[in-house]
Recover the amino acids of this structure.
């Protein structure tokens, strides 16, 4: 299956400055297995909300770091040498150039911060 069909990735920024973002409500109304939405921009970065279950494909970002913060659930980040396990209220940065894959064994909500130029599916 084409990876772009497996995932719902919305790159359109939903909220501007001075707008309240009700993350809990967005999570509650998320009804797809793998949904990633762009919430807002902060300087040259974008904050995304991912509500996911299952696994993403292996990929890397050649020029940008990627930060993950778990709201609820369990996020596994596979690296070539080890697996990082993130529980609620834990965060982790994957440096640019590192092959990685994210997995969520159960429905998991994650905030992601990355450069606005980053292509979520990898370079």
């Amino acid at each position: 299956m084409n990876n772009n069909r497996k995932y719902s990735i919305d790159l359109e920024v939903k909220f501007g400055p001075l707008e309240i973002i009700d993350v809990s409500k967005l999570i509650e109304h998320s009804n797809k297995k793998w949904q990633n939405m762009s919430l807002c921009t902060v300087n040259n970065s974008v904050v995304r909300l991912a509500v996911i279950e299952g696994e993403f494909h292996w990929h890397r970002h050649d020029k940008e770091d990627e930060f993950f913060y778990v709201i609820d659930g369990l996020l596994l980040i596979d690296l070539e040498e080890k697996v990082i396990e993130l529980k609620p209220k834990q965060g982790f940065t994957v440096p640019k150039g590192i092959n990685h894959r994210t997995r969520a064994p159960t429905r998991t909500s994650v905030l992601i911060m990355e450069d606005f130029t980053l292509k979520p599916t990898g370079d």
